[in-house]
Amino acid sequence: MLKINFSRNPITQKDMSLVSKILKSGWLTHGLYSQKFENEFSKFTNSKYSTLVSNCTAGLHLACKALGFKKGDEVIVPSQTHVATAHAVSYTGATPVFADINLYSGNISSSEIKRLINKKTKGIIIVHFAGYPCDMKKIVDICRKNNLKLIEDCAHALGTKYDNKHVGNFGDVGVFSFYPTKQISTGEGGIIITNSKSIFNNIKNNKAFGIDTDIKKRKIPGLYNVRSLGLNFRMTDFQAALGYNQLKKYNSELSTRRKNAKIYCEMLKNIPNINFHPYDSNASYFIFPIFIQKNIRLKLINYFKIKNVGFSIHYARPVDFMKYYKLNKCLNSKKFSDETISLPVHSEIDKRKISYIVNIIKEVIKKNK
Question: Which residues contact 192 (CB under 8 A, 6 or more apart)?
């Protein structure tokens, strides 16, 4: 019986040797690889500035803080996302306002954004769900017409483009995740990109306590000033080394993910009672979501467990349906949550494994007609 993991561990022996070397050096933060990774990420995304953070949630928090969201403000976010997207707004005292999504991309609906804008609305956070690009032309136009700040949550979207431009570059800020299941991983970790020097400087200072002088530029050790109420959201240098090495070879991973997604689309297209978003050559395919009736999904989940097929659900409960927010209003998101299942699409998957997964799906559907 095949065993298929939902995500892959991209860390190699070469990566571990490099981490060991950094650990032995004693220089664990503010190091060479942090700078190298930031530079490489700016090059990969074609953004002017990049700064590493301890995780994507920290990055979103810093972005909201830098854009000046505060108590009394409203920020529109999709309801079909990780709770971190909404929490980042709440941390500032502002109120997240939940917008429904498009089926079956999972991305925020631009018509919903328009409907929700009022005098209190100060910004929008969009999520490129599963690595599918949002409709950035419409969203950017909405922001310009209404003088709104725009944050792109790119946690799923490393390698995703729209109009030949890497996502994260359309808004004021783009934030990426390096969580273990993501396309590249540093364990925990994230990075912020922006094309604004003032936003970059704000975030860079605030991720390190609000300290105004870089450790390497201090004439007297320990002598610096603090100009804002900053946080401690830095990444270690050995994590940065892991990310840097993986990013250098990421194009191969991205190509395989797209190839696998195309195979899924071809194999699934004639199966009754299955829906999925059409193949998109601009998507980075963090996951491959499919949609199936809720009662059949439960049986498929159980069968995947028996057959050792890794899977997940993104996300099993919309954020506005969670007890903390308890609004229960985005019905497309609720349908999405009830019917979606995330299939593995990473580079350890091949046509044979995809065929194995698809045959299991066929078998479950046939048994439950």
Answer: 50, 51, 53, 59, 62, 63, 173, 174, 175, 176, 203
Q: Would strands 190-194 and 288-291 be described as parallel, antiparallel, or unpaired?
A: unpaired
Number of H helices, E strands in the chain: 12, 11
Q: Are residues 28 and 119 in the same domain?
A: yes
Angstrom distance (rounded) from CA 250 to CA 262: 19
Q: Which two tokens stand for residue 235?
A: 């990444």
Domain boundary among 209, 225, 248: 248
Read off the tokens for 57. Answer: 């949630």
pLDDT (tens digit, 0 to 9) for every residue of the chain, 369 residues total? 799 999 998 788 999 999 999 999 888 888 899 999 999 999 999 999 999 999 999 999 999 999 999 999 999 999 999 999 999 999 999 999 999 999 999 999 999 999 999 999 999 999 999 999 999 999 999 999 999 999 999 999 999 999 999 999 999 999 999 999 999 999 999 999 999 999 999 999 999 988 776 777 667 776 677 888 999 999 999 999 999 999 999 999 999 999 999 999 999 999 999 999 999 999 999 999 999 999 999 999 999 999 999 999 999 999 999 999 999 889 999 999 999 999 999 999 999 999 999 999 999 999 887
Which region, left, alpha or beta, applies to residue 222 given φ > 0 means left and ψ of -120 to 50 means alpha? Answer: left
DSSP class of residue 101 equals: B
DSSP class of residue 226 equals: B
242 lies in some domain: yes
C-alpha 309, offset from chain centre: 23
Cα–Cα nearest to 208, from 352, 53, 80, 356: 53
Residue 295 lies in a domain: yes
Q: Which residues does 278 contact at the CB level (< 8 Å), separation at least 6?
A: 265
Tokens 């631009």, located at residue: 110
At 177, which helix (H) or strand (E)? strand 173-177
Q: What is the pTM of this model?
A: 0.96
